[in-house]
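For concreteness, we quote verbatim a single protein encoded this way:
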Amino acid sequence: MEIKSSVCSKIGKVRATNQDNYLHNGIKIRDLNNEDTGIVTCKKNNESILEFIFDGMGGENFGGESSYFLANEVKNTYKNFLYELEDDNSDNITVINQYINDINLSLVKNNHKKGVGISGTTLSGVYIINGVATVFNVGDSPVFIYRENRLEKISKDHVQFIKMDDGFDRKTLIQYMGLDIDDIKLSPYIKNVDLKKGDKILMCSDGLTDMLTEEEICKIFFSENKGDKLVKKLIDTSIKKGGKDNITVNVIEIEDNDVESNYSVLKKILVLLFVVFVIVTVIFYKYYVWHSIVVNWGLNVVMENLDLLCLEYANY
């Protein structure tokens, strides 16, 4: 199975800073000095893949610092976490739960050290191995699967809505990374999904889903097949519709190695047949031209001699 992942993060049109972040292929995160990133892509063949998205929250730029700190923390512990996930004797749900609470403790300690008040970040992760995706999240950065022209949400938002004095409902996170463990033990939502060739997984911050409905997102998936172009189109469309928040999008494509291999073999055969056709055509053309020249020369000789014979016969 071939897996291709494409990710990009943009500041949007309203926010002064980008408080989103991501971890791509275990090595790539968004630098705090780089508000917008280009589209980054990686491809894996019959290997596991582990991707993350973070959406910072908090006053001033504390949210951006929290998401950056956690992205960097995951980057530094990525290999050990992946090793535990790939261990046949381990239970992924237990491993993920423990890991989430461990890195949350690191973020809480960092916030206390810096004297930061209420600050934190969401976290969404997707781990894929042997045709199965394990999706886990804390907060409200959603994960979807696009299959057979349908978009389905496979994450769970940790939110509640509070009625305000002005009559509007305010969305409040009830779980997020940076929540002090003295208050509550984090319980990430975890779901396993069996994958099929042609599936696409969408990870994003709510800067995308606040601007686009699921129906609009589905239409974009229907209109575009390649992951990197999908990422660009999703972000561009949400910015055109207002871009009120930072927007980070990761599209993971599931492809079939065998189908790809068969296609490559067929392509090579067609190229070979074309080359043979060109060679035969050239040979035939050269032979035809040469044959025509010889025949025409022979006919001319015969006709000249025939004219001479006729003239001699007439004189005789």
User: Anything to note?
Assistant: The mean pLDDT is 88. Residues 2-255 form a domain with the Phosphatase 2c; domain 1 fold (CATH 3.60.40.10). The chain has six helices and 14 strands.
